[in-house]
């Protein structure tokens, strides 16, 4: 009875040995996998910009032109003056708060180099469509965010030549720490149980406040305890707003959706839910019939027009195509069909 498994076992062991011997005999040899990256491919990835300006594309953009682009693509989340809508990040202000218990870290109060701003916007913004901006728009937006922070004036034109010379207010707040590293020996056995460690000091602005259990005097000292805490909070949030579950159910329920709506579902998930799932920035919430009823009354043509061309109504700003200018009109129409049919 045991013969067969044993034989298999030995055979596979021999196989494994043979394989590893075979490998070392081929060390240094090429196996024909993959291909050498072309300069174009490397250029596609090599987009970082250094504080001295190395890596910047040639170009320029003015504060004045940046204002229009910012209001169209960024203000719904970051606010007209960079003050941040709802809980979206604040981009301006916060000067002289870095030593407060809750410092407001913004581009102006915290960031050491203007190059990071250009790099970040080009790489990551707008949030729903990273890398969709042209270099010119990126110059314009960088100039405008600097202006919102009163680092440049309204006449300013940012170029690849003057960017490195911009001095950010907190540049001196960053320096190379020359103190020696800690000399504690690493514990290898009989170490303290991390779950029982108590944090006695925290660093202002660095220790996440989430590590402190509300109402308890000891912080969660381990990752496990932290995860437990997050789960608990999530649970409470869900229980408090039964809506979350309702919207979820609407997404999953096998409601008889039209073909257009079915096609629009993935567009919605990719491009629209960031705002509409929870009603951020004044957007009508997905699945919320009372929020949608008056809008639906306008007729599908109006709704689709507003979704494609953008719309500034009483509750907020719907950016053209939700900021995803790469979407076709048809894709946006399908997404609207999906939203409307799911919110009746
Ligand atoms: C849909 C909402 C949304 C839109 C629209 C948006 N952003 Fe953001 N932005 C975010 C979020 C979320 C973060 C934080 C991302 C993170 O930390 O991973 C962020 C972070 C940033 C930051 C870094 C802030 C910091 O201090 O860390 C900058 C700068 C920024 N955005 C600029 C822009 C610009 C310029 C635009 C317009 C082209 C834009 N954003 C559009 C949501 C948005
Ligand atoms: C950055 C946030 C944001 C994103 C992303 C977004 N929307 Fe909106 N949307 C809004 C806001 C805010 C409103 C409400 C504007 C008002 O009535 O003041 C809105 C309103 C709408 C309306 C109702 C318009 C009307 O006339 O009442 C439709 C339809 C719509 N959005 C579709 C979409 C579609 C489709 C997408 C994805 C392709 C999308 N939205 C992505 C913020 C957003």
Report the sheet-strand fraction. under 5%
In which range does the helix fraction lie?
40-55%
Sheet with the most strands, sense and barrel status: 2 strands, antiparallel
Bound molecule types: heme C
Unreliable spans are 1-22, 209-221, 244-250
CATH class of the largest domain: Mainly Alpha
Give the class from helix and strand content and strand pairing: mainly alpha
Distance between the termini: 65 Å
- Helices, by number, come to 12
Number of strands: 4
| CATH level 4 superfamily of the largest domain | Cytochrome c-like domain
Strand order in the sheet with the most strands: 1-2
Radius of gyration: 27 Å
Q: The CATH topology of the largest domain is what?
A: Cytochrome Bc1 Complex, Chain D, domain 2
Overall number of domains:
3
Helix and strand succession?
Answer: HHEHHHHEHHHHHEEH
Describe the structure.
It is built from twelve helices and four strands; from the N terminus they run ααβααααβαααααββα. Helix content is 43%, strand content 3%. It is globular, with a radius of gyration of 27 Å. The chain folds into three domains: 47-173, Orthogonal Bundle (Cytochrome Bc1 Complex, Chain D, domain 2), CATH 1.10.760; 221-253; 255-341, Cytochrome Bc1 Complex, Chain D, domain 2 (Orthogonal Bundle), CATH 1.10.760.10. The protein is mostly helical. A hairpin with a 4-residue loop joins β3 (311-312) and β4. It has helices at 3-25, 39-45, 63-73, 75-78, 114-124, 135-148, 223-240, 242-252, 259-276, 289-296, 300-309, 329-341, and strands spanning 60-62, 157-159, 311-312, 317-318. The strands form two sheets. It has a two-stranded antiparallel ribbon. The structure holds heme C (2 copies). One heme C is lined by residues 76-77, 128, 271-272, 274-276, 281-284, 295, 298, 302-303, 306-307, 311, 313-319, 321-324, 332, 335-336, 339. One heme C binds next to α4, α5 and α6.
């Amino acid at each position: 009875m045991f013969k067969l498994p044993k034989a298999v076992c030995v055979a596979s062991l021999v196989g494994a040995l043979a394989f590893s011997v075979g490998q070392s005999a081929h060390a240094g040899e090429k196996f024909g996998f993959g291909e050498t990256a072309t300069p174009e491919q490397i250029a596609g990835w090599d987009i970082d910009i250094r504080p001295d300006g190395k890596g910047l594309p040639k170009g320029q953009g003015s504060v004045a032109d940046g204002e229009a682009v910012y209001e169209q693509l960024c203000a719904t989340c970051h606010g007209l003056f960079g003050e941040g809508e709802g809980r979206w990040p604040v981009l301006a202000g916060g000067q002289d708060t870095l030593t407060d218990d809750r410092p407001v870290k913004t581009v102006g109060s915290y960031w050491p180099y203007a190059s990071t701003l250009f790099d970040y916007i080009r790489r990551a913004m707008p949030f729903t469509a990273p890398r969709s901006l042209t270099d010119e728009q990126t110059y314009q937006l960088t100039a405008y965010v600097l202006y919102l922070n009163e680092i440049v004036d309204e006449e300013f034109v940012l170029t690849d030549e003057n960017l490195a010379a911009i001095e950010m207010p907190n540049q001196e707040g960053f320096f190379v720490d020359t103190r020696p590293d800690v000399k504690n020996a690493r514990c290898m056995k009989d170490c303290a149980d991390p779950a029982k460690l108590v944090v006695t000091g925290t660093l202002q602005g660095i220790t996440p406040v989430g590590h402190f259990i509300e109402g308890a005097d000891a912080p969660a000292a381990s990752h496990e305890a932290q995860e437990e805490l997050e789960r608990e909070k999530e649970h409470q949030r869900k229980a408090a707003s039964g809506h979350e579950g309702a919207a979820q159910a609407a997404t999953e329920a096998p409601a008889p959706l039209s073909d257009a709506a079915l096609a629009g579902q993935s567009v919605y998930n990719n491009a629209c839910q960031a705002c509409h799932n929870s009603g951020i920035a004044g957007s009508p919430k997905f699945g919320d019939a009372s929020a949608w009823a008056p809008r639906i009354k306008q007729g599908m043509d109006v709704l689709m027009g507003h979704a494609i061309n953008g719309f500034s109504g009483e509750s907020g700003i719907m950016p053209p195509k939700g900021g995803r200018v790469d979407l076709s009109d048809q894709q946006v129409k399908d997404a609207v069909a999906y939203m409307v049919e799911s919110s009746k």
